[in-house]
């Protein structure tokens, strides 16, 4: 074990350097924590050591705890988790007390954390136990506690110490939202103590140690007379803070995220007692969260599986296919967004449209995004110039010469796409990969326009491209492995998460999200209160209700999709009741948010004001309303059953992609870990029972797939205890 190394200089300053050799970013393991404890003991026992610097041998300090270790901790049960967490607390408390006499608070040795770059999770909790935190002035570095984003909370003292350091109100964004800051912003917020030039980091840390007085290395909460900033729950101001925090958490999470509730409880209870007792309380709540299946599912999908997909878990074994020159055909919002994220990632881009004005407008989209970045101090003028210089806006297809990947993003019209395909293939090399950006049109049909169908692939970006993390890659019937690898390598270059699915109408994401929207619209036609529909969705963890979602994506787009689907399916088309509502809305000119009128009403600035009251006049509210659970089951099962059918049909080949894609693509209840994670939480038998109940009252669209019935009969789950995806 060499994750930490130890050295003492001639002035008696010990430096413990964190450098996990097998990883690009330091992450903490159980063995590494034990080694760190031993090295701290060694330094404290050495009379010649005057103080300790904790730093990193890498450009960053640490990326946090190894969540693979956390995922494995659960197997040992609650006692094993609690004992393991308390062991971490003891090591960090040892650093905090640093050998001082607990009565006189003297005799300790100053310990300073010197952060060269990013410090996340345990990478900040460890420094928070030190007596001073000094960070290098590195604008790219991120400092914070993002654990809440993957279904847990800072459980190695971060919750307790940050509240004691900053007060509950100031600590809330960092704990409850996982807010990350650059070093200067972190210092301004009170997260860290000092920011220095990178080349001065270790020198400044050493100088502070050698000049530190006894009072400098006593943590505020260990000193007599300590009062928590903002007050405890017993203080009038503190009481109001905790009331507000509780309301905020419930408002943002709708009560479905156990980590947020546990964190708030740990803060509240911990604020009433001394630090050591507060750490035990934190450990107890952290244990309860780790034992909750929701946290297990979130860690699995949002960290372990997401990371595996980003590293190419399902990438064909062919040579590196990194993109050097990209052609984007179509400079509308989608094409312009693709051009921006690609140029921002360092790729040369040729952006083509039918007129120079349209092409220039597409490039201007990038300029606008970069200007916003400059306003937020995230982008420099030099960076803006570099990115824009990589984009060539033109109408000339010959400019595509030398491109190794083309992304076509023109209208959802097979004839238009076919014309573009022919124009492109006339000027690019035979090894150039052609990707069509489409959300609904089958790739194998579009590939018929190509002379090289093995090089033809689908790439479905989600809008807005610069913000959405997911990219859906669609393999056509003749798509070759090199094309798949090229698409995956490109998505990695632009720092997004890919899923690969096989060709079928609507692919995977839209196949699942359209039934969700349709179920909400169908309930409107039935006379279900629209507010009940929308709130039922939010109360089960969906970020948007189905009616708001169709407003966001536009009602006229829904009409186009419905007409195309009906033309393809003929008499088998199942959504006539939905079309009656959707087409009527379009006839009223209510096209959604883009027209400031849809299922919701909007003010002149486009701000959503509430559900449109004219809806009730045409679709009266029924006297008898369904219960909340029934509405939630309809909305969830509309999505989940399509995910299972996609797996059954071979559109999905890996449930990890199904879960990660659902959360990142359309926000499927992140607390559940995705549709397959949710089915494991409730159990296949319960899922089949719900399906049978809904089928009896709502129809065959809720019929349980045979795969689900087989799982219910055998007790099988999608994810066995190892956390690995079980083969279908």
Q: What form results from the Cα inertia axes?
A: globular
Instruction: Enumerate the strands of the largest sheet in spatial order, edge to edge or round the barrel.
Output: 14-13-12-15-16-17-18-19
- Superfamily at the CATH H level of the largest domain? 2-enoyl-CoA Hydratase, Chain A, domain 1
Count of helix runs: 29
Task: Please report the first level of CATH classification, the CATH class of the largest domain.
Answer: Alpha Beta
CATH topology of the largest domain: 2-enoyl-CoA Hydratase, Chain A, domain 1
CATH architecture of the largest domain: Alpha-Beta Complex
**Overall mean pLDDT score?**
91
How much helix, percentage-wise, in residues? 40-55%
What is the rounded distance between the termini?
A: 39 Å
Structural notes for this entry:
With 728 residues, this protein is of the alpha/beta class. It has 3 domains: 4-291, Alpha-Beta Complex (2-enoyl-CoA Hydratase, Chain A, domain 1); 325-505, NAD(P)-binding Rossmann-like Domain (Rossmann fold, 3-Layer(aba) Sandwich); 510-618, Orthogonal Bundle (N-(1-d-carboxylethyl)-l-norvaline Dehydrogenase, domain 2), CATH 1.10.1040. It has 29 helices and 21 strands. An 8-stranded mixed sheet has the order 14-13-12-15-16-17-18-19, sandwiched between helices. β18 (470-475), α18 (481-493) and β19 (497-502) form a beta-alpha-beta unit. α12 (293-310) crosses α26 and α19 crosses α23 (576-587). It starts with a strand and ends in a 14-residue tail after the last helix. The model is unreliable at 722-728 (pLDDT under 50).
Please describe the topology of this protein.
Elements: E1 4-8, E2 13-18, E3 27-28, H1 30-45, E4 51-56, E5 64-65, H2 67-73, H3 77-97, E6 111-115, E7 119-120, H4 122-128, E8 132-136, E9 143-144, H5 158-166, H6 168-176, E10 180-181, H7 183-189, E11 194-196, H8 201-211, H9 236-253, H10 258-270, H11 275-291, H12 293-310, E12 325-329, H13 333-344, E13 348-352, H14 356-375, H15 381-389, E14 391-394, E15 405-408, H16 414-425, E16 433-436, H17 443-446, E17 456-461, E18 470-475, H18 481-493, E19 497-502, H19 509-526, H20 530-539, H21 546-553, H22 555-569, H23 576-587, E20 600-602, E21 608-611, H24 614-618, H25 628-649, H26 655-666, H27 675-682, H28 684-698, H29 706-714
Parallel strand pairs: 2-4, 3-5, 4-6, 6-8, 7-9, 8-11, 12-13, 12-15, 13-14, 15-16, 16-17, 18-19
Antiparallel strand pairs: 1-2, 9-10, 17-18, 20-21
Helix pairs in contact: 1-3, 3-11, 5-6, 6-9, 9-10, 10-11, 12-26, 13-14, 14-15, 19-21, 19-23, 19-25, 20-25, 22-23, 28-29
């Amino acid at each position: 074990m060499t994750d930490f190394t130890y050295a003492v200089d001639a002035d008696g300053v010990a430096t413990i350097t964190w450098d996990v050799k097998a990883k690009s970013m330091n992450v903490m393991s159980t063995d590494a924590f034990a080694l760190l404890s031993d090295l701290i003991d060694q330094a404290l026992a050495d009379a010649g050591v005057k103080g300790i610097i904790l730093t990193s041998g890498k450009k960053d300090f640490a990326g946090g705890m190894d969540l693979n270790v956390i995922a494995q901790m659960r197997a040992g049960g609650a006692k094993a988790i609690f004992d393991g967490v308390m062991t971490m607390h003891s090591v960090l408390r040892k650093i905090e007390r640093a050998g001082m006499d607990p009565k006189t608070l003297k005799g300790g040795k100053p310990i300073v954390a010197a952060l060269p770059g990013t410090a996340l999770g345990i990478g900040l909790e460890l420094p928070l136990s030190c007596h001073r935190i000094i960070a290098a002035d590195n604008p790219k570095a991120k400092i914070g506690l993002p654990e809440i984003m993957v279904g847990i909370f800072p459980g190695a003292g971060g919750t307790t110490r940050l509240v004691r350091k900053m007060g509950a109100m100031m600590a809330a964004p960092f704990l409850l939202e996982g807010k990350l800051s650059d070093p200067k912003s972190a210092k301004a917020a009170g997260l860290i103590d000092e920011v220095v030039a990178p080349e001065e980091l270790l020198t400044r840390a050493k100088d502070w140690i050698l000049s530190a007085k006894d009072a400098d290395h006593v943590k505020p909460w260990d000193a007599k007379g300590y009062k928590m900033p903002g007050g405890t729950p017993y203080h009038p101001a503190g009481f109001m803070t905790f009331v507000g925090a509780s309301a905020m958490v419930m408002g943002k999470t709708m009560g479905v995220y156990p980590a947020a509730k546990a964190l708030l409880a740990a803060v509240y209870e911990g604020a009433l007692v001394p630090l050591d007792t507060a750490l035990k309380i934190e450990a107890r709540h952290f244990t309860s969260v780790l034992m909750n299946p929701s946290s297990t599912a979130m860690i699995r999908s949002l960290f372990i599986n997401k990371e595996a997909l980003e590293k190419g878990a399902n990438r064909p074994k062919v040579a590196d296919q990194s993109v050097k020159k990209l052609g984007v055909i179509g400079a509308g919002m989608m094409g312009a967004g693709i051009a921006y994220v690609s140029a921002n990632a360092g790729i040369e881009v040729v952006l083509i449209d039918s007129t120079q004005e349209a092409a220039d407008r597409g490039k201007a989209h990038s300029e606008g995004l970069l200007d916003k970045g400059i306003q937020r101090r995230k982008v420099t003028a030099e960076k803006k110039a570099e990115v824009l210089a990589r984009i060539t806006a033109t109408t000339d297809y010959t400019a595509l010469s030398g491109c190794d990947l083309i992304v076509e993003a023109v209208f959802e019209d097979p004839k238009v796409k076919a014309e573009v395909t022919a124009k492109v293939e006339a000027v690019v090399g035979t090894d150039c990969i052609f990707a069509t950006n489409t959300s609904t049109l089958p790739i194998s049909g579009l590939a018929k326009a190509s002379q090289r169908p093995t090089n033809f692939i689908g790439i479905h970006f989600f809008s807005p491209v610069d913000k959405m993390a997911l990219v859906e890659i669609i393999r056509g019937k003749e798509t070759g492995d090199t094309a798949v690898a090229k698409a995956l390598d490109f998505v990695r270059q632009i720092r997004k998460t890919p899923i690969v699915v096989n060709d079928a109408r609507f692919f995977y994401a839209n196949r699942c999200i359209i039934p969700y929207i349709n179920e909400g619209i169908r309930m409107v036609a039935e006379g279900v209160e629209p507010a009940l529909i929308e709130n039922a969705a939010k109360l089960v963890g969906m970020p948007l209700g189905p009616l708001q979602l169709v407003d966001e994506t536009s009602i006229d787009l829904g009409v186009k999709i419905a007409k195309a689907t009906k033309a393809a399916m003929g008499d088998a088309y199942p959504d006539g009741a939905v079309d009656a509502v959707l087409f009527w809305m379009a006839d009223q000119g209510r096209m959604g948010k883009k027209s400031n009128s849809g299922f919701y009403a909007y003010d002149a600035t486009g701000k959503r004001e509430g559900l449109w009251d004219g809806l009730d006049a045409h679709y009266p509210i029924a006297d008898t309303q369904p219960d909340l659970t029934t509405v939630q089951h309809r909305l969830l099962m509309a999505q989940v059953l399509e995910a299972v059918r996609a797996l059954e049909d071979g559109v999905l080949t890996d449930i990890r992609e199904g879960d990660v894609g659902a959360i990142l693509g359309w926000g499927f209840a992140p607390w559940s870990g995705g549709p397959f994670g949710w089915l494991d939480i409730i159990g296949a038998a319960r899922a089949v029972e719900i399906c049978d109940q809904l089928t009896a009252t709502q129809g065959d669209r809720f019929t349980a797939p045979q795969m689900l019935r087989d799982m219910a009969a055998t007790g099988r789950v999608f994810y066995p205890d190892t956390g690995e995806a079980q083969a279908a």
